[in-house]
Amino acid sequence: MNIQSRTEIGQDTIRVMLVDDDDRIQQALRLAIETHPELNLVGQAYTLKDAMAVVEELQPEVVLVDLGLPDGSGLELIAHIHQHMPGCESMVLTVFGDESHVISSIEAGATGYLTKDTRTADILDRLKQLRAGGSPISPVIARRLLNRFRGVATPDQLPTSKTAVNQEFTPLSEREQQVLEMVAKGFMQAEIADILGVSINTISTYIKRIYKKLAVNSRTSAVHRANALGLINLKDC
Question: DSSP readout, 104-155?
Fold first, then answer.
């Protein structure tokens, strides 16, 4: 658990807490927030357990939380904040852009939802918008929600074949999502292992899990199935 405070610079800053197990994202946001005159980083947590242990003590006004934490779901933290901390708001920052994760987050109490391809500067702007009464949502997520309420089928609602109709989909873990995106971009297992700092056997295990969850048996099928489900966008790959 890493706690940092800038309360000495004034009482008008927005108190922010970061909850994410990705150290690169944590550090990028920390550096950006520390140089922002309107934001005050009061704490950082890398696990659900650490976040739950100190969130009430730190009294942040906004918690930027990832859904895929190593010891549980960020949804649990969001629900806790919603129920016990009326002065605090939760904004999701995650790789998951599918409808089920978005709806689950909103139902748990999140008032903002951003995907991790959002620029750091834009994330900081969204934090301010949230405290000003807005509900920032990534544009692609907003479009899917609008289509849902208009009754228009979105990519994550469309089957890819007759066998996929009414088939239950088990959400991917955050690491599985990362691996899937790299597979879609054409990276080989050895390259993915090197980038993520794990063994090839570990990547092979992730890919097998992805195949099982997507009900496919090849890289090509996995990519097309994931695109149809809205997990990736082939135009970005």
Answer: HHHHHT-SEEEETTS-HHHHHHHHHHHHTT---B-HHHHHHHHHHHHTPPPG
Q: Could you tell me if 134 and 187 lie in one domain?
A: no
pLDDT at 164 over 60: no
Could you report the per-residue pLDDT of 54-80, keeping only the tens digit for each? 999 999 999 999 998 888 889 999 999
Domain harbouring 143, CATH code: 3.40.50.2300
pLDDT digits (tens, 9 = 90+) for 166-175: 345 678 998 9
Average pLDDT of the segment spanning 182-208? 89
Q: Is residue 152 part of a domain?
A: no
Contacts of 99 (CB under 8 A, 6+ apart): 144, 145, 148, 154, 156, 157, 230
Considering the domain architecture, whether residues 143 and 162 belong to the same structural domain is answered as no
Domain hosting 106: range is 7-147
Q: pTM score, two decimals?
A: 0.61
- The answer to whether residues 4 and 29 touch, using CB atoms and an 8 Å cutoff, is no
By DSSP bridging, strand 112-115 and strand 89-94 are parallel
The answer to whether 93 touches 114, Cβ cutoff 8 Å, is yes
**Residue that terminates a domain, selected from 113, 147, 181:** 147
Residues 73 and 183 in one domain: no
pLDDT at 75: 92
The residues facing 113 across adjacent strands are: 92, 137
- Domain boundary (88, 115, 147) is at 147
Give residue 148's pLDDT. Answer: 64
Q: Which of 40, 187, 205, 193 is nearest to 127 (CA)?
A: 40
Answer yes or no: do 72 and 108 share one domain. yes
